[in-house]
């Protein structure tokens, strides 16, 4: 199974320093400089999903022609932009005709859809907490403020570590399912892990059981978890044992029942012995009858 990557959000973080850059500022006094600045920013945005590299795909004679069609700008404007920013070192052309944008890489930021979901959730929880626990700062002495800052930093570090764990957990879930997750599935994960105290290991076991049965729907995974919760199952080991017990019971139901009645007692029974065996039986029968006759004769004539 090919692993489908987690959905990632990319963006470029611009600040005042970008426009204070000497190469950008010089464009203000250049004919067509504004258009070239906009095109350069669009080139950076176009490159963020491919590690800040604009790949020449070979559909046209040059990368300029391909980008002109993608960005809907003229080839002349693109040539001017490439010429200027290549001289500045902000665009680098490799031996395969690909354009590398090092400044875009330094400005690039990203996060997974799960990380975004958790970040938005934490923001909402923080707002609710601030509304419920408003306390005037005037009541705090400097020592209290310092202590609160340290606690806040510790909490932020703890949240970052927890977020990394959650990202890895979601990666494993998506790898097993072979697809990315959507919002209602994130909500369902949150409900089981937090609302119902289901461990991540047990949740992953339910995912594996569903995939083994060729089902990748979360409703099916939820039914598996609900059954385990009702049966008091809390660990993957207990879940595995429950599956083994179920398969054993199922196998016993399909086994044919054994009868204690001998075959010769059954209706339409046909003797299936070979001629050699029949001859041995006849000989043994004859010997037994001879011994019985001798025994009877000895009893009739004791003297």
Automatic annotation (TrEMBL):
The superkingdom listed in its UniProt entry is Bacteria
* Compositionally biased residues, Basic and acidic residues: 277-293
The record's listing under PANTHER family reads: DNA REPLICATION PROTEIN (PTHR37293:SF5), PHAGE REPLICATION PROTEIN-RELATED (PTHR37293)
Coiled-coil parts of chain: none
Task: Point to the regions of Polar residues compositional bias.
Answer: 294-303
Q: Which Pfam families match?
A: DnaB_2 (PF07261), Phage_rep_org_N (PF09681)
Phage replisome organiser N-terminal domain mapped to chain residues: 11-126
According to its UniProt entry, this protein's organism is Streptococcus dysgalactiae
Protein name, UniProt field: DnaD domain protein
Region entry Disordered, spans? 248-303
SUPFAM superfamilies according to UniProt: DnaD domain-like (SSF158499)
- Which InterPro entries does the record cross-reference, listed alphabetically? DnaB/C_C, DnaD, DnaD-like_sf, Phage_rep_org__N
What residue stretches are annotated with the DnaB/C C-terminal domain?
171-242
Family as reported in the entry's similarity comment: Belongs to the DnaB/DnaD family.
